Amino acid sequence: SVKLVESGGTSVQAGGSLKLSCAAAGSTTYFSMAWFRQAPGKEREGVAGIDRDGDKTLYADSVKGRFTISKDKIKNILYLEMNNLRPSDTGMYYCAAERAVSALLYPSWYTTWGQGTQVTVSS
């Protein structure tokens, strides 16, 4: 089984940058992976995803051009680099992994989740 542990979340001012990490215990070589976030009182939303081959990435419209998802296959770590952060980016960020995913940014496709890391962006 795969276990995921996120890190890197913290408080930052608007316009700042953060890089989140998701370390996987267990091989994720053949897994699609994604980052999701959830703000208080809101549904979990897909932020960025990468297919299992690492050839395809997908981003939510709200983060395109500001966030970059990447995967270090050797270290087995998923990253989310976030630039030009906005208060609307505030939330708990989760990484997720799944072998077969038809829709990278839909949470219902994923069965393996990390515990989350909090990102707070102040204006």
Structural class: mainly beta
Estimate the strand proportion: over 45%
Calculate Rg over CA atoms: 13 Å
Q: Main β-sheet, in a few words? A: 7 strands, mixed
Q: What's the average pLDDT?
A: 96
Shape: globular
**Tally of contiguous helical segments:** 0
User: Termini distance?
Assistant: 40 Å
**Unreliable segments (pLDDT under 50, ≥5 consecutive)?**
none
Number of strands: 11
> Helicity, in percent?
under 10%
Compressed to H and E, one letter per element, the order equals EEEEEEEEEEE
Task: Summarize the model shown.
Helix content is 0%, strand content 49%. It has no helices and eleven strands.
Summarize the structure in words.
The protein has 123 residues and is mainly beta. 0% of the residues lie in helices and 49% in strands. It is built from no helices and 11 strands. The strands form 2 sheets. Strands 2, 4, 5, 6, 9, 10 and 11 form a 7-stranded mixed beta sheet that branches. A 4-stranded antiparallel beta sheet has the order 1-3-8-7, with no helix packed on it. A hairpin with a 6-residue loop joins β5 and β6. The radius of gyration is 13 Å and the shape is globular.
Task: Break the fold down into its secondary structure elements and pairings.
Elements: E1 3-7, E2 11-13, E3 18-25, E4 32-38, E5 45-50, E6 57-59, E7 67-72, E8 77-82, E9 91-98, E10 112-113, E11 117-122
Parallel strand pairs: 2-11
Antiparallel strand pairs: 1-3, 3-8, 4-5, 4-9, 5-6, 7-8, 9-10, 9-11
